[in-house]
Amino acid sequence: MIRLTGIERTFVVGEEQVHALRGATLEIGQGEYLSIMGPSGSGKSTLLNVIGLLDRPSAGIYELDQRDVTGLSDDELARMRREKIGFVFQFFHLVPRLSAAQNIELPMVLAGIDPTGRKPRLNRLLAEYGLEDRAGHRPDQLSGGQCQRVAIARAMAMNPSVILADEPTGNLDRHTGREVMAVLERVHHNGGTVVLVTHDPEIGSRAHRRLRMIDGAVVSDEKS
Amino acid sequence: MRLNDVLSFAWQVMRGYRGRTLLILLAMGIGVAAVVAVTALGEGARRYVANQFGSLGTNLVIVLPGRSETAGAMPGVLVGKTPRDLTLEDALALRRSHAIRRFAPLIIGAGDVRVGARRRETPVLGSTAELLEIRRMEMAQGYFLPEGDPRQSLPVSVVGSKVASELFGARQALGEWLRIGDRRFRIIGVLAKQGESLGFNTDEIVIVPLAAAQALFNTEALFRVLVEAKSREQIPYAKEDVEEIIRLRHEGERDVTVITQDAVLATFDRILRALTLAVGGIAAISLAVAGILIMNVMLIAVTQRRREIGLLKALGATGRQIRLAFFTEAVLLAIGGAAVGLIVGQLGRNLALQLYPTIPFQAPWWALVAAPATAVITAVLFTVLPARRAAKLDPVQALSRR
């Protein structure tokens, strides 16, 4: 489903060239639960951004659902993200002035789905992530765990091919972090593909497939 | 993205940043209100002048003795040599023209008007029966000067309402006698209150037959002749006829000045219109300033809402959608500001009308269209840069910072 071949990503910082990714080659199948671990600066977030089409690789080929996406225009990439990718961020990134329900609705609004089509999907998502009684609350009225549940519900709104979570528990206490992991794992149990970036070994080791990255390269790939 | 969603998204932003929204509405509102108020003033002045000229009579051609070499516009400020007087015979000769409906020769002078022990210095007008129609005067009581031979001097007079009340107080003026100099006149009519028009107040005059005024002021020369053309189209012909008839009578000398009311009015109209446009344009500068404010605020918004823009991109918003969101916000703000401005402008107009009821303040239709349109156009133009900047934002960088 996701196939990366020889992906390079270089940044120019000042006069120096920084290799964030060096020839990353990786294949992720439908329904996998995969964690990417490694020290800071090892390129795991960059890899995630490339998979999420937020970042363009400097070289290499990226195929998403059997389609080469390396040459697509910005707008085509935006449409691909809308249809196939769900993001979960460390800092939730909810729109502060919108209610939980409106935040969850946002991808469907951007996709131009009409309100009658959005309504049942929204209600299903609210119920599924236990947010029914929080639907009208704004993010500043929600706890961290609730915020992240809203973010996961939002990521699932368009039924994406893959959920990309960048340190989803990094901003939560241990207990809430476990709760959020349970929610993500339920997505996986229901057949979703989950890619998780973390530097918490306890959380990373729960995934069925574990990548280790050092200096922009994948150094180990374990499955259990 | 559906139009409704675009609008409600922009609406949420405007509600979310209330202070900012109010400031922009204020700036836009002041700009639009300034344009509306200022053009209402200008247009009011124009209409005021037009009304004043209209109250002088319509299709008017004014004949003055003397020829001014440098053609001026205002009757009264013309100072020309008068080699030959304009006489009643000249005026009567105008009957030959087919373009002229009626005319009234005019003599004017200051008279010492007395009733019993009361005396008053007033302008005394010598004219004929036609003056009533030509000047659109109305009678409150009695009759105007009788028709008949203008060479005949009848001892009758018509007085303005203020003259009547000052000389007779509460007493009935009609039928009484008054003295002007050493002559006695019976009052056969009182003019209705008309007020001032172009500096000439008919409430404060006494009108006597032309021949009587000639005797009173001991002159044959007419002050001027008011001529009414048969219609608007006939005005140029009437003017030509007047010039030709009097030239023939004055041994081929063109020694009268003929002014058409239309020409004078048109000049005023042009001047005041240009003035209205100019001050309206100056007021419109404040709209440009409001536009710059919008740009500023939008640029700040791009920085302030970096994360949100990055998020929208991650959720699959295209560059077009992000630009659209910014433009929608700007247009909504401009429309809101324009609405505020139109309302405030109208309130200002109403206030001005209360203070100066005689001047018909009314913003011209083009200003009512142009001001909001300018507001919206400047808002859109000044949002181009911020919207492009937002659309080009790199989502990875926008999202990475807290």
End-to-end distance of chain B, in Å? 28 Å
**Largest interface, per-chain counts?**
A-B, 33 and 28 residues
Number of helices of chain A: 7
Strand order of the largest sheet of chain A: 6-7-8-3-9-10
Could you tell me the radius of gyration of chain A in angstroms?
17 Å
Approximately how much beta-strand content do the residues of chain A carry? 25-35%
The fraction of residues in strands of chain B falls at 15-25%
Low-confidence stretches of chain B: none
The CATH class of chain A is Alpha Beta
Structural class of chain B: alpha+beta
Low-confidence stretches of chain A: none
H/E element sequence of chain B: HHEHEEHEEHEEEEEHEHEHHHHH
How would you describe this protein?
The complex is a heterodimer of chains A (224) and B (402). With 224 residues, chain A is an alpha/beta fold. Chain A has a single domain (2-223), classed as P-loop containing nucleotide triphosphate hydrolases (Rossmann fold, 3-Layer(aba) Sandwich), CATH 3.40.50. In chain A, 34% of the residues lie in helices and 29% in strands. Chain A is built from seven helices and ten strands. In chain A, the strands form two sheets. In chain A, strands 6-7-8-3-9-10 form a six-stranded mixed beta sheet, sandwiched between helices. Chain A has a four-stranded antiparallel beta sheet with strand order 2-1-4-5, with helices on one face. In chain A, helix 3 packs across helix 4 (115-128). Chain A is globular. The two termini of chain A are 20 Å apart. The relative contact order of chain A is 0.20. The mean pLDDT of chain A is 92. Chain B has helices at 3-16, 18-55, 88-93, 131-134, 161-168, 210-217, 235-249, 261-304, 306-314, 319-355, 365-391, 395-400; strands spanning 60-65, 100-115, 118-127, 139-142, 156-159, 177-180, 183-191, 196-197, 200-201, 206-209, 224-229, 256-260. In chain B, helix 1 crosses helix 10, helix 8 (261-304) packs parallel to helix 11 (365-391) and helix 10 (319-355) runs antiparallel to helix 11. Chain B folds into two domains: 3-52 and 266-400, no CATH class; 101-225, no CATH class. With 402 residues, chain B is α+β, with helices and mostly antiparallel strands. In chain B, the strands form two sheets. Chain B has a six-stranded mixed barrel. Helix content of chain B is 54%, strand content 18%. The A-B interface holds A 45, 49, 52, 54-55, 74-75, 78-83, 85, 87, 89, 91, 93, 95-98, 102, 106-107, 109-112, 114-115, 154, 158 and B 1-2, 4-5, 9, 12-13, 15-16, 307-308, 310-321, 395-396, 399-400, 402.
